[in-house]
Amino acid sequence: MLKTRIIPCLDVADGRVVKGVNFVDLVDAGDPVEAARAYDAAGADEICFLDIHATHENRGTMFDLVTRTAEQCFVPLTVGGGVRSHQDVRALLLAGADKVSFNSAAVANPDVVAEAADRFGSQCIVVAVDAKTVTPGKWEIFTHGGRKATGIDAVEFARLAEAKGAGEILLTSMDRDGTKSGYNLPLTRAISDAVGIPVIASGGVGTLDHLVEGVTEGHASAVLAASIFHFGTFSIAEAKAHMAAAGIPMRLT
Amino acid sequence: MRVALVDYDSGNLHSAEKAFQLMGREAGAEVVVTSDPEVVARADRIVLPGDGAFPACRAALDAVDGMTEALRDAVLARGVPFMGICVGMQMLADLGHEYRPTEGLGWIGGEVVAIDAAETRAAGLKVPHMGWNDLVIDHPHPVLEGITTGDHAYFVHSWQFRVANPAERLAHAGYGSAVTAVVGRDNIVGTQFHPEKSQGVGLRMIGNFLGWRV
Hints:
The complex is a heterodimer. In chain A, 37% of the residues lie in helices and 24% in strands. Chain A contains ten helices and eleven strands. In chain A, α8 links the parallel β10 and β11. In chain A, α1 packs parallel to α2, α6 packs parallel to α7 and α8 crosses α10. The longest helix of chain A has 14 residues. Chain B has a single domain, classed as Class I glutamine amidotransferase (GATase) domain (Rossmann fold, 3-Layer(aba) Sandwich). Chain B is built from seven helices and 13 strands. The two termini of chain B are 15 Å apart.
């Protein structure tokens, strides 16, 4: 049986982890490679790097990080942030990423997803959907870190991303991100039920029950979290044990 | 020992290279990523990765002048141990149906067909089959030494290899119905999942492959 994935996400800026990672035993907690290696050893099912102010000037730093991470981590690595074209996808895949995530570029031009999926296969193309509630039961896509409204319906956009060849959706609730009040479950369920591809729930995790709800009520295939793991509030093993106890199939290592 | 990872411009070889290097270090294996048929011809182990669509991978492999001939000679005529990964495993089949019927290498009988989206959806499952699934060993094999039913491997695929001869399906995973996970006969093995992304289980299989005496 396929297991539900737990994915720690590292926000990276200029080659450093933003917000820090509060693990013991790390020589340099701000080094994304060290943090990724620790998560690999802790039993994370995948690891995600998000380049939060991706600019052309610092792309080289990200490629270097991805290359060094791939040398030491033997779980899949997803990289997002500032990905604009199939050339960007290729460069990241060659550096050692296993999946690459489009965000603003896919909203501006959904065909960029199709071009990348045709070349490299849907299995490595993720579309990140950042959505905010506009009225109850209605969600809209926001870009540029949640600052720019687009008027695009989030459920419709997720369907479009699937039709263009995305292999997975990384869904972040902009309302919940950073609040520790739990995933936006109606949004997560609406998108998960609307598409046939896996959906990763993101934004708002504060407790282990939130991870459970993302799957049982949000119907997500995978759950992503950042600060609860980075700050050592919970370990990956604790999260997995808690989800397994709630009846969710997990890979326990 | 020389291990050739065949580079035909299809996907991420970096992860596979690092995993084979790690496991080959003790055995003193030299791991080379190559698109040179002559290097493949001299190798003691051959690995064919592959990501993306079947027809695109097949076309890309054929586009490397002399490569399929070198592979056939090494693997079929001289019995050099061979491992296919993901689409590199699917291409062992007679025929692939992704986008359009495309001939495979025909080294393991069978066809590559879609994971039935309607069937999986009815069961609440998504396509691609993406993530960690537990293996069910159908037939013991030296490359599966130390791997037991219930161990997890990382899958990501929408198409699956329906093997004609059940004896050549070495392991499967449950996803709606049984999805082929490992194939093999004689000096040939293939994995649908990514051993280079399957932590200890995958690394163990890579180590077994490097030590395999056919």
